[in-house]
Amino acid sequence: MNKINIAIDGPAGAGKSTVAKQVARDLDYTYIDTGAMYRALAWKALQSQADIQDGEALSALLESMDLTLSYTAEGNRIFVDNEEVTNMVRSNEVTASVSQVSLHAGVREQMVKKQQELAKAKGTVLDGRDIGTTVLPHAELKVFLTASVEERARRRHLENVENGRESNFETIKQDIQTRDEKDSSRLVSPLTKAADAVEMDTTELTAEQAAMRICSIAKERIKKL
């Protein structure tokens, strides 16, 4: 059976990762967590006390570090220099830093090359903010997920609470609005809906419902290959 690449983009908290993982499971595809890759670099920068405003320093750090993503039945595991950082990259400190880290052109260029290499074999699902426009502009299916700021903040707050992380709804809501502005206005690979992307508002949808819709569209695309 033919396989395609699926690019899922959207702002923070729109449900990209949850939906992408479900789509990958349902289609038996490989899920590539691009956001975790940037979070891993942000975590390493904070641990190394590197200046996250210094693009050259971050590019050098990324080049020198060993970044590995492992996909298991229990979920995704992230390793930096053989140390598992799966939970640590979700800390509030990393979340507050990752958007700045991802602004640097040199960092994004390296990350894009890594992501494109992973997707060469097809049968992958990638989520992020510039997958359909920059990383996989020729992906057979592009989806742009949206949701209200309030709903996105609620989801992030619940995720933090469920994982035992300190969380404040109003702070998260403000952080999301700030990140939306940063991601949409950055000069390199801004958050933009690809012209041929299917837009899907998930405010009133569960992750399972959104995934089902995407899988249905994907199967139709596959039939036409």
TrEMBL record:
Subcellular location field: Cytoplasm
One GO cellular component this record assigns the protein to is:
cytosol
Q: Name one GO biological process term.
A: pyrimidine nucleotide metabolic process
Residues of the Cytidylate kinase domain: 6-219
Residues reported to bind ATP: G10, P11, A12, G13, A14, G15, K16, S17, T18
Sorted keywords for this record are:
ATP-binding, Cytoplasm, Kinase, Nucleotide-binding, Transferase
Q: What is its EC number?
A: 2.7.4.25
- What catalytic activity is recorded? CMP + ATP = CDP + ADP; dCMP + ATP = dCDP + ADP
Q: What is its main location?
A: cytoplasm
Q: Name one GO molecular function term.
A: CMP kinase activity
What the record says about family reads:
Belongs to the cytidylate kinase family. Type 1 subfamily.
| HAMAP family from the UniProt entry | Cytidyl_kinase_type1 (MF_00238)
Name it. Answer: Cytidylate kinase
Instruction: Give the originating organism.
Output: Alteribacillus persepolensis
